[in-house]
Amino acid sequence: MTRTAVVNDYKHPQPGATSTLTLDEKVGQEIVKNGIKRPKGYTVSYHANPEVEKMHFGPKHPMKPWRLTLTNKIVLAYGMHEAMDVYIPRAATFQEMTEYHKDDYIHFLSWVTPKIKLDPEASNIFPYNMGDDCPVFDGLYEYCSLYSGASLDAARKLTNNQSDIAINWSGGLHHAKKAEASGFCYINDIVLAILQLLLYHPRVLYIDLDVHHGDGVEQAFWSTDRVMTLSLHKYDKANFFPGTGGSDDTGPKNSANPGAHHSLNVPLQDGIDDESYVQLFKDVVSPCIGTYQPTAIVIQCGGDSLGGDRLGCFNINIRAHGACVEFTKQLGLPLLVLGGGGYTPRNVARLWAHETSVCLGTDLHPSLPAHTPFIEHFAPDKSLYPELSQTGRYDNKNTGKYLREIVTSIREQLRYVQGSPSVQLQHMPPDLGAIRDEVEREIQEEREARDFGRRRKERGAGIRGEYAH
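Above: the chain sequence. Below: its structure as tokens.
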């Protein structure tokens, strides 16, 4: 009877046939191949709470927090985390979010759930602008507090000199207003972060690269000269959200108002390309820096200005978008880098991973690492830099003459800015207001407890005021 071998001899595969490297070893190889190392002379911090990635607006909604998962996976696959200080930030508190937003609005966000039927005629619901664009979903309040907390944490790292460039890709939700949601945005984390920066910095320049106008941030700082807002966006008052941000929207019309001429807008038409966009960016940012002399910069890197975006209409590639971040970084000022729009998740993830490398001063190999999770979502090229300007290409309606007129208009507005505002500052620790409120609350509770005890003793003794001293 022929005996059959139960256990076959193990034969080692030919070299290169399979990989037995651990994930850490593969990442280590990418670090060496791409020359990733901590920047010299400055520190980059990366603020990401994985709980944000789990949120879901709904199956048909264009906003996909899952784009953050893809972004972080690429960052980790290249090994960029080894060159940064990585933080998992805490959620923002109710008190922190009401530094800008109204209490009743934050209260609403804290209790509303999808199970509560929204009545269009109920005045206590729809003034907050909840609906198709800004739906109520499970975990809404947690989502708002998490992405806002990350932006606040990033801003604090800058003010505490723990970081020179702080990144939060979950932030940048620039449409939210003081008492209502707007354009997929519920809490304006940008405003909260800038308020934090203003505790230490006399002047902050806010730059918005989203294809939509940064109306919420502009509105928040409309009447102050301590923040200058500069937004580059598609503008069509009647047909493109939010319909604001024309070249004549420059702040309050009354020149005596401190915010006059401090809201600058670059209204663009469909189809602007790489070369025109980058040159325009440099031509408008440079005079803003020279005239306003900010001491810190916040840049919103909305990915919907890329070519091929689900809601966008430009022909910009990833490297061109990143060139704007590079130019801003080279100014050498404390820099807060935020996400924003972007509705083709695979391209948004590519963009933000690239701009993370820009902040680190690293040139990445264009082929995504083979061990990148979900790499099939980047097929067929599996490249960090696909050609996006030809994807659903729009005709470029921005003529050279039109772009030159925009630059002239910006420079003309800056002529009215009476130099950089002089602000007397005091050193204030973060959250001083929250600390003060907590102390006052404790004092009040102690006083009430003492009074209650005294009244009980007085009732027992029957002599009023016996225990007053």
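The CA atoms of residues 248 and 342 lie 27 Å apart.
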